[in-house]
Amino acid sequence: MSKRVFVVTGGSSGIGLAVIKKLTGDPSHHVFSFSRSKEKIERAMLDLEKVPENLEFIEGDVCNEADCQRFYEKLKENHHFIYGLVNAAGVLTKGGIENITYSQWKYNLDVNLNGPYIFTKSLLPMIKAAKGASIVNVSSIASMRPGRSVAYSVSKAGLDMLTAYLAGELAPYKIRVNSVNPGFIKTNIHIDNQIVTTSNEYKTLVSETASKNPLGRAGEANEVADLILFLLNDKSSWITGSIFKIDGGTLIENDFLPIQKKP
Question: Which of 84, 126, 142, 186 could form a disulfide with 232 if both were Cys (CB 3.0 to 4.6 A apart)?
Answer without folding.
Answer: 84
